[in-house]
Automatic annotation (TrEMBL):
It comes from Paractinoplanes ovalisporus. Residues 35-54 bind DNA. Residues 14-72 form the HTH tetR-type domain. It comes from the Bacteria. It holds the Pfam family TetR_N. Keywords: DNA-binding, Transcription, Transcription regulation. InterPro entries: Homeodomain-like_sf, HTH-type_TetR-like_transc_reg, HTH_TetR, Tet_transcr_reg_TetR-rel_C_sf. SUPFAM superfamilies: Homeodomain-like, Tetracyclin repressor-like, C-terminal domain. PANTHER family: HTH-TYPE TRANSCRIPTIONAL REGULATOR BETI, HTH-TYPE TRANSCRIPTIONAL REGULATOR RUTR. This is TetR/AcrR family transcriptional regulator.
Length: 191
């Protein structure tokens, strides 16, 4: 096969994969129980095309979660974490909660089909960012040190997921979420 034809086929495959992953991310974000057929339909491809790129539904769910986390990492890496750790945490939480809200159903889909350790591994970058910020705040004496750091990180993640659920069910207004999350977490971390 000619190199140009191989490159064209590879480029077509990459476009097809990107289309399928985007459709999976969107579809699973609306319905964590969406089937491969649902995702194929949303992508405008056949089921066999999906299976040609992803051997199993869990592989496709993981690819969608990885794509969402990559996009989230782009957003979170742009957050200014300098200055007072409390202010930096407020900025990080304001950016984080909406990402969590957008991907809550996708995470629910992943939790059904991926091992817990895998999900934790995929979230390591976000957890490391929060952990480093809390550690800095502890070193500067503005965040509590009487509880394990990993516990504090997990509590923050649960607060974010709880806020997303409250928003989804209408018990919390979107305009209030960032402030509620920030005040809750700041009160948990206060030294």
């Amino acid at each position: 096969m000619a190199p140009t034809r191989t490159r064209a086929r590879r480029a077509d495959a990459e476009r097809s994969i990107a289309l399928i992953v985007a459709a999976a991310r969107s579809t699973l974000s609306c319905d964590p129980d969406a089937t491969v057929d649902d995702i194929a339909t949303a992508a405008g491809v056949g089921r066999m095309t999906v299976y040609g790129h992803f051997k199993t539904r869990p592989d496709l769910v993981e690819a969608a979660l990885v794509d969402a986390l990559r996009a989230g990492e782009e957003t979170l890496s742009a957050v200014d974490l300098t200055g007072d750790p409390r202010d930096a945490l407020s900025r990080l939480l304001a950016s984080s909660w909406s990402l969590v809200s957008e991907s809550a159903a996708l995470l629910a889909a992943a939790e059904k089909v991926l091992p817990e350790g895998r999900i934790r591994d995929l979230h390591a970058g976000a957890a490391d960012r929060i952990e480093a910020l809390i550690r800095r705040g502890q070193d500067e004496g503005v965040f509590r040190t009487d509880l394990p750091l990993t516990w504090l990180v997990n509590v923050i993640q649960h607060v974010l997921h709880g806020a997303a659920e409250e928003l989804r069910t209408g018990r919390l207004r979107e305009a209030a979420v960032a402030e509620v999350v920030t005040r809750t977490v700041q009160s948990i971390l206060a030294s």
